[in-house]
Amino acid sequence: MSLWHPDVRRxxxxxxxxxxxxxxxxxWVTRIVPVMIILVSYICFLAMSALGSLWWAxxxxxxxxxxxxxxxxxxxxxxxxxxxxxxxxxxxxxFEQQIATMPLTRILDISMRRPFWGTIFNYGHFTFETAAQxxxxxxxxFVSNPExxxxxxxxxxxxxxxxxxxTFDPQTMHE
Length: 175
Hints:
By secondary structure, this protein is α+β, with helices and mostly antiparallel strands. Helix content is 39%, strand content 25%.
């Protein structure tokens, strides 16, 4: 386990012929709040000189806020959604990694939602519908380039044969 990178490649079943099609990092907008927290810690460090004999209070508060900001930044970095030719899975967590896996054959439906800001900054949220309803793999938020990613996922599912190709026979419609 690495504290700096989720290392999804080691979770791939190479001996079964599994290959990574797409590794999705969370969109950069998820890093805005952690960076703002880090900037607040920097302001606390700058305020140390103005606090006089209480300079240590600025140091302690700045360190606590800074660690919180870097922690949230690392949590965002370690959250990955991976599409392979056999399954989709998600890895998240720093010290304690959580992994959820869903075979392509269990995906019944995929919906994508783009909020107002998602339209402007090119991100969206995916919902995967399955018979079992895996809880934290069901919703994947802040996916960059959602239309392109949706096409990739649909193509992988189709190529894997998870969805039968619908044939339309106009003769059967009139019976």
